[in-house]
Amino acid sequence: MKIANNRKAALAAGGLLAFTLGAHADVVTDWNVKAGELIVEAKLGTPPANRVMAIVQTAVHEAVSTAALRQPGDTSLDAAVAAANRVTLSKLMPAQEASITSAYQAALAKLADGPAKAAGIAAGEQAAAAVLTRRADDGVATPERYRPHTTAGSYVPTAAVAAWQWSARKPWLLASASQFRPGPPPALTSTTWARDYDEVKTLGSKTSKQRSPEQTEVARFWDYSLPPIYHGVVRSVANMPGRSVVQNARLFATVTQAMDDAMISVFDAKYHHNFWRPITAIRNGESDGNNATQPEAGWASLIESPLHPEYPSAHSILAATLGTILQAEVGNAKLPVLSTSSPTAQGATRRWARVDDFMAEVAASRVWGGIHYRTSGEVGLAMGRKIGALAVAQQAAQIPPVLTPVGEARLVERISARGVQVYECRADKAAAAGAQWVFVAPQAELFDTHGASRGTHYAGPHWEAADGSKIVGKLEARADAPQAGAIPWLLLSARSVGGAGRFASVTSVQRVNTAGGVAPQRPCDASSVGTVDRVPYTADYLLYAS
Fold first, then answer.
1. Beta carbons of 334 and 292 less than 8 angstroms apart
2. Is the N or the C terminus of the chain less surrounded, counting Cβ atoms within 10 Å?
3. pLDDT digits over 494-535, tens only?
């Protein structure tokens, strides 16, 4: 993975158009493109750029969640996203202040003045300030103290290494930088090392005759490593029909936090193992103690070697982190064609039908570029899958701020529901088919944390305990479910409408961790009006008293 150099900066500047031509789903994706352009303009290296994007997209997510509650409507959300971007980007990249302000003013000029716009700006500014405060001491300012391995009097390259201090940063999701640190690279006397050595020596050489034209194209394509090349893949999912601003804000926050953690994790591993690059190994092939590896004087890689240790592959960990999150985001739905463009390939676009194809290409590209071994790519992919899975799991466990009960509410009980969401096909002149599915009521059994049946959930919505206590809820806020194909998460105020007992003191209810329950997929038209369908669902209900 490259950090920054003049050649790349020039290519990036000429290739920005590639990142702005795709279809944009909403204000979140539009600003994601703009933030990527500003990062390129600032000439940030890859690790700092991922940190900036994680802070920006986290602020956007929190701003959108707040704006959706304070002043619902597109104007509020658009203003919140713009303000969150302006505040975070200006703080993190002050040299780009003029460009940031210009983009912000252009965005606000499109919005009508009024309470919604003002509320959105306030939500964006407050969310950005809060996130910046939380990440101010994340360790990014740790001094670089790398000590080259040498003996007195021996020359070592004098260029500064990249991101040595990155493992000292505070992660977003990981317990520590070393949480997923892999074991050592293959022993130099092993057959695996000999295989890796010969493969990159043959296919990664600048003058290779065995590397195919397509492999060369792929290697040059993935010579680029700044966030826009990966975020283009994310937008393939974000641009799917029917997705909301809230869903996309959450997706980009999850992806960028996980990718920033991937950078922290991979540099911890790189400097821990301190493994040599192919250009060093191949020119010194006689020194590894393996008779199966032969040196080649003057060997050079197709892609310039980055200024940090080889093992494992940073591109591979990023690709697998991202791919794992996108696969979970889509769930059982049909995956859209993934695509993105690269300035180091003259703006060319590549596409993948499967997440695994995308990840495999990224890992292989580093071998074809001559800067990584196959094992390093495999290990990087494995690390990325773990980080992506952790991000998905933590995302599912997090309840959006918009669903927080008002006041000093305390959690008194967690119950689970298993049942159906009832829908009826009803006539609707405004619907394209003359009718649409309408939610009627839930019908579910309630269980406590030990799996014992404790009551029922039905129209109202009512929650009724076996002891006769009963509450009825009123919708206060909602948030899109993290997983595709699931009914929204909700916050409801509640009041007792039954006798004393288990549910009598409950004043608020959160519906979270939903699965299933969305409107039926089968047609609803004039010929099927009156049809009733029961869609299975599960959910957790958190009961609060104040």
1. no
2. C
3. 999 999 999 999 999 999 888 889 999 899 999 999 999 999
